[in-house]
């Protein structure tokens, strides 16, 4: 799914009007109908809960007025409040006229704001994608009032005060919505941790914007949902053999962190790899042989950490990092690996910390390497903290372009940057995955998929991120979020990959 900017959303509106020969008021009616359908499925019967709709001067306010009319038609008695406006939009004015006289409409007076009972439902239709500057004056006072009311707030399209695709200044007020109900495609703002307190739970409802326009519009950001991923993993041919899926090498583990290498190894095996060899320090030899007997174990001459790079010839892909430690000798192994490797690399955890501590290694990164930092590791990698989440995304894009690599920023909507700077936001996963070892599982899974020659580097990364999150979602259904441990993810990798595998065409 593409993520359009606010400007592109306006163009999509215009293209839809032209392609379908409809008026903007008709498109607004479509949006209001979709919104009301969503809301009516969740509202108690009329009369049980007071509904307040706050409308701004533009088309977001127009949506609010159309919603008020439709709720009235459904038997509800909303009260509508409008911000005083010198130049309301044409569709605002049209819907203001179409509002039945039985629906009370009052202008907001910032000095005498309506008291809002805590059990009220507030619909925020003040500002959407047309927000052009931070809120001040009456609008700001009203937003603070809504936020302090304790009422449940549902935002139409965007929480008012939030820009669709740019940071807001920290001191400008933004509606703290419990739900945000938007149209057609998700907005970048929904995907960033710094906006979570404003956006609440979000939903995107189809309003059938012109698909040809969306198809032909190039974007910098994508949202990766089930439709994007399902079928991307080719089915295994009847005559596959273990060579088809590659022999991979995993360099991982140090004393006290052999578990990280075990988790990554198990995930790699469940990810469908043909053969797996693990290079671990000698202290981990028996642990690995016992807990992942399917993997071959190459013990390092050193007891506690990896000090020697094995011969790389047999391997189709190489992963390095989980539990690795940051000893000087291990750093030299990483340096040699970067110099010698001519197969896909997956770098995680301490391999990334070593890169951050030794930036001279970065230019050695082979093209199309896949890096999987969490935000702290990413900060070490780029060497400076991000100003905010938007800035971090720009750092991510720049990093991927500069080193021609695939770089994953892990988190709630894990973000993959491709070498061309395009960002892909993953949609699966849950907070239960915020537990030690989940990242090691991801590394193992990505390593298996990078070795699968049938997949492009982009498809391997997208599929791995999506499947990892989905395995987490499946696991959490059984364990609960708090009870989820990283090993649970491994159990679901197989079933999830099966779900996502392409089915042969029917006869
Ligand atoms: N495809 C879709 O998704 C569809 C979208 N639709 C809906 O349209 C919405 C976009 O409507 P929109 O373009 O009229 O913009 P909107 O957000 O109402 O604000 C503009 C008004 O606010 C004003 N204003 C701005 N900033 C301000 C500030 N800080 N403080 C005070 N005023 C400020 C601005 O004034 P100006 O900047 O010109 O001075 C102007 O008057 C979109 O979010 C969705 O709800 C559906 O109807 C159809 C399908
Ligand atoms: N709130 C969340 N929602 C979805 N996924 C999450 C959430 N928190 C963590 N994750 C996922 O869990 C993994 C954690 O990785 P990482 O921080 O490297 O853990 P570790 O180093 O302990 O293995 C990442 O893939 C991340 O995307
Ligand atoms: K709004």
TrEMBL record:
Isomerase in keyword set: yes
Pfam families reported in the protein's UniProt record: Carb_kinase (PF01256), YjeF_N (PF03853)
EC code(s) of this entry: 4.2.1.136, 5.1.99.6
Cofactor requirements of the protein: Mg(2+); K(+)
Cofactor binding notes: Binds 1 potassium ion per subunit.
Keyword list, A-Z: ATP-binding, Isomerase, Lyase, Metal-binding, Multifunctional enzyme, NAD, NADP, Nucleotide-binding, Potassium
Signal sequence extent: none
Positions with a binding annotation for AMP: 410-414, 439
Domain spans labelled YjeF N-terminal: 9-215
Domain YjeF C-terminal: 225-500
Protein residues bound to K(+): 60, 124, 160
Binding positions ((6S)-NADPHX): 59-63, 128-134, 157, 260, 323, 374, 440
UniProt cross-references to InterPro entries, sorted A to Z: Carbohydrate_kinase_pred_CS (IPR017953), CARKD (IPR000631), Nnr (IPR030677), Ribokinase-like (IPR029056), YjeF_N_dom (IPR004443), YjeF_N_dom_sf (IPR036652)
SUPFAM superfamilies: Ribokinase-like, YjeF N-terminal domain-like
Subunit structure: Homotetramer.
Family: Belongs to the NnrE/AIBP family.
Protein task: Catalyzes the dehydration of the S-form of NAD(P)HX at the expense of ADP, which is converted to AMP. Together with NAD(P)HX epimerase, which catalyzes the epimerization of the S- and R-forms, the enzyme allows the repair of both epimers of NAD(P)HX, a damaged form of NAD(P)H that is a result of enzymatic or heat-dependent hydration.
Protein name: Bifunctional NAD(P)H-hydrate repair enzyme
Organism: Hymenobacter glacieicola
Biological classification of the source: Bacteria, Pseudomonadati, Bacteroidota, Cytophagia, Cytophagales
This protein's encoding gene: nnrD
């Amino acid at each position: 799914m593409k993520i359009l900017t606010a400007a592109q959303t306006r163009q999509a509106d215009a293209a839809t009007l032209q392609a379908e020969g409809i008026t903007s008021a008709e498109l607004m009616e479509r949006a209001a109908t979709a919104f009301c359908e969503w809301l009516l499925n969740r509202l108690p019967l009329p009369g049980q809960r007071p509904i307040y709709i706050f409308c701004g001067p533009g088309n977001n306010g127009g949506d609010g007025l159309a919603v008020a009319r439709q709720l009235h038609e459904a038997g509800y008695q909303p009260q509508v409040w409008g911000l005083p406006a010198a130049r309301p939009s044409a569709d605002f004015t049209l819907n203001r006229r179409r509002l039945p006289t039985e629906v009370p409409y009052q202008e907001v007076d910032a000095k005498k704001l309506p008291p809002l009972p805590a059990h009220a439902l507030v619909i925020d239709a003040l500002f959407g994608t047309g927000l052009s500057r931070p809120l001040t004056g009456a609008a700001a006072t009203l937003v603070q009032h809504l936020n302090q009311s304790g009422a449940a707030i549902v935002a139409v399209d965007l929480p008012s005060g939030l820009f669709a695709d740019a940071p807001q200044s920290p001191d400008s007020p933004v509606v703290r919505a419990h739900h945000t109900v938007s149209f057609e495609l998700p907005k970048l703002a929904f995907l960033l941790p710094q906006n979570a307190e404003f956006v609440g739970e979000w939903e995107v409802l189809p309003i059938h914007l012109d698909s040809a326009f969306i198809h032909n519009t190039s974007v910098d950001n994508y949202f990766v949902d089930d439709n994007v991923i399902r079928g991307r993993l080719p089915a295994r041919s009847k005559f596959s053999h273990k060579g088809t899926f590659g022999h991979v090498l995993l360099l991982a583990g140090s004393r006290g962190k052999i578990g990280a290498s075990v988790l990554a190894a198990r995930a790699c095996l469940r990810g469908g790899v043909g053969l797996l060899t693990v290079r671990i320090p000698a202290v981990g030899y028996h642990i690995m042989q016992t807990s992942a007997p399917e993997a071959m174990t190459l013990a390092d001459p050193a007891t506690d950490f990896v000090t020697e790079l094995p011969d790389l010839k047999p391997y189709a892909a190489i992963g390095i990092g989980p539990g690795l430690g940051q000893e000087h000798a291990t750093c030299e192994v990483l340096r040699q690996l970067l110099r010698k490797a001519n197969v896909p690399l997956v770098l995680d955890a301490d391999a990334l910390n070593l890169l951050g501590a030794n930036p001279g290694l970065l230019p050695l990164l082979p093209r199309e390497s896949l890096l999987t930092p969490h935000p702290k590791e990413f900060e070490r990698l780029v060497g400076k903290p991000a100003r905010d989440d938007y800035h971090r995304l720009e750092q991510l894009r720049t990093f991927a372009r500069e080193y021609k690599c695939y770089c994953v920023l892990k988190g709630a909507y894990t973000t993959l940057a491709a070498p061309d700077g395009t960002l892909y936001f993953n949609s699966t996963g849950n907070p239960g995955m915020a537990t030690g070892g989940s990242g090691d599982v991801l590394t193992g899974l990505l390593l298996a998929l990078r070795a699968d020659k049938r997949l492009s580097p982009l498809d391997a990364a997208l599929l791995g991120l999506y499947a990892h999150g989905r395995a987490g979602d499946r696991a959490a259904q059984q364990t609960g979020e708090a009870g989820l441990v990283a090993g649970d993810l491994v159990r679901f990798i197989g079933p999830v990959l099966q779900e996502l595998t392409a089915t042969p065409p029917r006869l």
